[in-house]
Amino acid sequence: MAGACLRYAVMEVLGFGRLITPEAQAVMAEGSARHRRFQTWLLTEADVIAVEAPLVSESWQVSGRVDAVVRLNGEPVAIEYKTAGPERFQAMLASGRPLAEHWAQLMCYLATGAYRRGCLVVEERDSGRRLQWAAYPDPAWTAWLGQRLEAVRRYQAAHRLPSREVSRGCLTCDRWQRCFRSEAERAAAVEAHPDWEPDPPLPALPSQPSPPAWVHSARTQEEGGPA
């Protein structure tokens, strides 16, 4: 939940229900299948320590699972795998920056102190092209994540929901009815405010892909894009 809007994260810890449409279920099933294929591919390409590695931090009061952990130069590296549609992937390719919600998840793993290195891998669903960003603990992100988690706990204790953090993500949110009265209202809000602007503001994102040596996309290299 590190990369979720604050309102959604509070709904999660308070046990709010979700409306998952058949279309969303199909997308989730496809994502799970791609996830498994990536892990299988990784087993042939890297020195894999574990897949779906559990992570529990008592000091941060968070738990989760790391998609994969590989050994690179004798050091464990946490791998976070995501998929993206053509439009979002092309935006990342053009800007050189990952999506903030993807990056936040990986930085949370590093912030807990469980890992000193990480890598975000984003795969375009249509073409299979991949972009990767190497990650290291970042004090600015650690502070931001700590503030967000503290806010979640504060609202949880008060049994209240924070204000909306409107963005494009609202268009695919499975709890959007808790924030908007109709699809038309949601669409108008997103059109007026498409970019996620959480409080506090996001720390800086990496400006260029920086893939580790063990992972690459032959197709991307052949096409002349970043590997």
TrEMBL record:
<dbReference type="InterPro" id="IPR038726">
    <property type="entry name" value="PDDEXK_AddAB-type"/>
</dbReference>
<dbReference type="GO" id="GO:0005524">
    <property type="term" value="F:ATP binding"/>
</dbReference>
<keyword id="KW-0234">DNA repair</keyword>
<dbReference type="GO" id="GO:0006281">
    <property type="term" value="P:DNA repair"/>
</dbReference>
<protein>
    <submittedName>
        <fullName>PDDEXK_1 domain-containing protein</fullName>
    </submittedName>
</protein>
<dbReference type="Pfam" id="PF12705">
    <property type="entry name" value="PDDEXK_1"/>
</dbReference>
<dbReference type="GO" id="GO:0016787">
    <property type="term" value="F:hydrolase activity"/>
</dbReference>
<keyword id="KW-0238">DNA-binding</keyword>
<keyword id="KW-0227">DNA damage</keyword>
<dbReference type="GO" id="GO:0003677">
    <property type="term" value="F:DNA binding"/>
</dbReference>
<keyword id="KW-0547">Nucleotide-binding</keyword>
<keyword id="KW-0378">Hydrolase</keyword>
<feature type="region of interest" description="Disordered">
    <location>
        <begin position="190"/>
        <end position="227"/>
    </location>
</feature>
<feature type="compositionally biased region" description="Pro residues">
    <location>
        <begin position="199"/>
        <end position="212"/>
    </location>
</feature>
<keyword id="KW-0347">Helicase</keyword>
<keyword id="KW-0067">ATP-binding</keyword>
<dbReference type="GO" id="GO:0004386">
    <property type="term" value="F:helicase activity"/>
</dbReference>
<feature type="domain" description="PD-(D/E)XK endonuclease-like">
    <location>
        <begin position="36"/>
        <end position="179"/>
    </location>
</feature>
<dbReference type="InterPro" id="IPR011604">
    <property type="entry name" value="PDDEXK-like_dom_sf"/>
</dbReference>
